[in-house]
Design a protein that fits this description.
single chain; Growth Hormone, Chain: A; 21 helices; about 450 residues
């Protein structure tokens, strides 16, 4: 190793102790980000059609509310490109602090938007604008959080540490479900007039906590090493499209099924179960919490399993789970019994989704070299998120209507995406491809860093 490539004393010390801080900070940060994002999805399914689109019939109003929900997904690729560009050129940490503010502040402002009765459809316009800013933030957030965890991780544990920001989705979902569950117990007049605003305004507390945690995290060792070696790329997105189109496409194909599965079984299922099956809102929100609790444990477990047997094999197990469990999920809901509704959520979120989402951080980031890694994973993941997550509730609602209320078409749609994802994951490179460049800095020893 030449002199300019040697890690500084600060870098060496951070490698020994800093990866734990980086992993936990990534998890806490994504918890806050996803609380904000899921809160909007739950409100879109249960409340916004009545607040901002009361002139429409119930089905059209729900579709309109889901359309505002989809705006956030369509903004994600833009956020991935913008924050990926600066994350690969300026650094990972600063981008994570900016995305945290861009997620938290619009969420607070959503809680202050006047209703249709007060300012007409201008309320919906403001809602779309805030949702757009949220989408840009999430588009840049995921890649940075995953890379801070994976690139700080010690040898042999990239899967586990990469699963920590993924696992942050579960407490975010739990907190948002608890908040909206408490609001749902209010008298409907109070809930619709002012109660629904409380969970959005309360996110100011989470925003402050998230900032305090993330500001303490050191910069990624991989980024600093890449910077020292002069490996920065002038326009990362062009480099990704020119040199890594195959890697981008297989990540898009794999992620498409995962994100569609999640938003179908969480957001669409909430509207379907309460509107079509007549299941109480609190029952569905409680079931979602049970599923998220199991996922909180299973995601790190799947990350660790990926470290042992290979991350793509764990992911492929999840894709097969989609094919097998899609019809079971809706059959369980149709029983209208609390036990089986809870079982459906645990199956969909706690098991199948955990197998997909847990190993993603390490698996997807290993497809790209450090100089374009932030851009590569952000672009691929957010494009598939816009297609899958953004259209999932709308597509499922349309397929349900085509089936005359029978969700058979929805299950076939999910199963087909599961097959595509399985093939895409099988085509991915192993995590050792860029290991020589992305391995952690040497642990401190009496002899100093390993050359």
């Amino acid at each position: 190793m030449n002199t300019q490539e040697k890690p500084s004393g600060n870098e060496t010390h951070r490698t020994r102790k800093g990866y734990v801080t980086a992993g936990l900070a990534s998890m806490m940060g994504t918890t806050i980000e996803w609380y904000d994002f899921f809160l909007y999805g739950t409100a879109a399914a249960l409340i916004f059609n009545k607040i901002f689109f009361p002139a429409f019939d119930p089905i059209t109003g729900t579709l309109a509310a889901f359309a505002t929900y989809s705006v956030g997904f369509f903004a994600r690729p833009l956020g991935g490109i913008v924050f990926g560009h600066f994350g690969d050129k300026v650094g990972r940490k600063s981008m994570l602090l900016i995305t945290l503010l861009m997620m938290g502040i619009p969420t607070i402002l959503i809680g202050l938007i006047p209703s249709y009765d007060q300012i007409g459809y201008w309320g919906a316009v403001l809602l779309v604008l805030m949702r757009f800013l949220q989408g840009i933030a999430v588009g840049g957030e995921w890649g940075g959080a995953v890379l801070m965890a994976v690139e700080h991780a010690p040898p042999g544990k990239k899967g586990f540490f990469g699963s920590l920001p993924q696992a942050g989705v579960a407490p975010g979902l739990i907190l948002s479900s608890l908040a909206m569950g408490a609001v749902a117990k209010m008298p409907e007049a109070d809930m619709l007039s002012w109660g629904w605003r409380i969970p959005f305004l309360a996110s100011v507390i989470l925003l402050l906590v998230g900032w305090f945690i993330r500001v303490k995290v050191a910069e990624s060792p991989d980024f600093e090493r890449m910077e020292n070696r002069g490996k920065k790329v002038e326009i990362p997105v062009m480099e990704v499209l020119r040199k890594y189109p195959r890697e981008t496409l297989v990540v898009v194909g794999a992620r498409l099924a995962e994100v569609t599965w999640f938003y179908t079984t969480v957001t669409f299922a909430l509207a379907y179960a309460t509107g079509t099956l007549g299941i109480a809102r609190t029952v569905m929100l409680d079931a979602t919490i049970w599923g998220a609790v199991v996922a909180l444990v299973m995601m790190p477990a799947c990350g660790m399993l990926g470290d042992k047997i290979g991350h793509k094999w764990v992911f492929m197990l999840g894709t097969l789970g989609i094919v097998v469990c899609a019809p079971l999920f809706f059959n369980f809901l149709h029983t209208r019994e609390v036990f089986w509704i809870n079982a459906a959520a645990v199956l969909a979120i706690g098991l199948v989704y955990a197998c997909l989402y847990g190993p993603e951080g390490s698996l997807f980031s290993s497809q790209f070299p450090p100089e374009v890694r932030y851009t590569g994973i952000s672009l691929a993941v957010q494009v598939s998120g816009a297609i899958g997550g953004g259209l999932a509730p709308i597509m499922a609602t349309w397929l349900l209507a085509k089936g005359g209320g029978d969700p058979a078409y929805v299950t076939w749609y999910l199963s087909a995406l599961g097959v595509v994802a399985c093939i895409s994951a099988f085509k991915m490179h192993g995590t050792e491809r860029f290991a020589g460049f992305s391995k952690p800095l040497a642990k401190p020893t009496l002899q100093g860093p390993t050359p």
